[in-house]
Write a structure and sequence with these properties.
The protein is mainly α. The protein has nine helices and ten strands.
Length: 245
């Protein structure tokens, strides 16, 4: 911090980076998050229909706070400097204006408060536009209560535990996955079931043509008309090794 500035240089630099993020993409993505349309809906009369996505109330509230915060600090800077009021603007434009006039803002006693409020608004905006991580199937229901069960345990990839809101059980996710994988390996599957099991186990798509090829070439043996997952996994691992070698 210098004698005429109420922010340290590193604070000014960091605030500038965040304002440019707001200007360049965050505000745009936040607007898209509030209400967007999916370009590929159902077909009607040979044409794709556009299906509106549900209005995102949280994103709208965050956008309102962001706009108000940016506008307030633009007005504050103009009031305490020779900068001219730019007029009513969108959030991205206010962010760009503040980035260009950060030194003027830093010369006001309220600059540390501005950094706190702008940083909080920036964090909330990025949090609102982040897509939640997809949930994946970890295993069957773990409820021990008669008459209460759920459709299965779904969680994020990096989860260690999960409290199921349906059956009330607290799940040890790594242990559940290990148990499920051991059970899956010991079962016999039809060709379609085998493909589904491979996708669940490998966490990636497995083409039907790949399984058909293994069977046609005699690499995947049939056991009473069904197939073993462990044998298919060995073939998938060998295929991956060849492709990455």
């Amino acid at each position: 911090m210098t004698d005429d500035l109420f922010l340290a240089r590193h604070e000014i630099t960091l605030m500038g980076l965040r304002l440019r993020e707001l200007r360049d993409w965050v505000c745009h993505d936040l607007d898209d998050t509030i209400s967007r349309q999916v370009a590929f809906g159902d077909k009607q009369d040979g044409k794709r229909t556009e299906t509106p996505v549900v209005f995102n109330e949280n994103a709208a509230e965050v956008a309102t706070v962001l706009h108000g915060t940016l506008r307030a600090w633009v007005e504050h800077t103009c009031t305490h400097s020779a900068c001219r009021w730019p007029g009513e603007q969108r959030s991205a434009q206010y962010a760009g204006w503040l980035d260009r006039h950060l030194m003027d803002l830093a010369k006001t006693e309220e600059a540390p408060t501005a950094v706190d409020e702008l940083t909080d608004a920036w964090k909330q905006a990025k949090r609102a536009i982040d897509r939640p991580q997809d949930l994946e199937f970890a295993g069957p229901c773990q409820s021990t209560t008669d008459g209460i069960e759920c459709a299965g345990v779904y969680c994020r990839k990096d989860a260690d535990t999960k409290d199921c809101q349906t059956c009330g059980a607290t799940i040890d996710i790594p242990a559940l996955r290990a148990t499920m994988e051991a059970v899956m390996r010991d079962r016999l599957y039809t060709k379609q079931e085998l493909r589904t099991a491979l996708v669940i186990y490998l966490k990636q798509p497995v083409p039907r043509s790949t399984i058909d090829g293994w069977i046609a070439r005699g690499r995947l043996a049939a056991h009473a008309g069904k197939y073993r997952l462990d044998e298919a996994l060995a073939l998938a691992a060998a295929r991956h090794t060849v492709r990455t070698a």
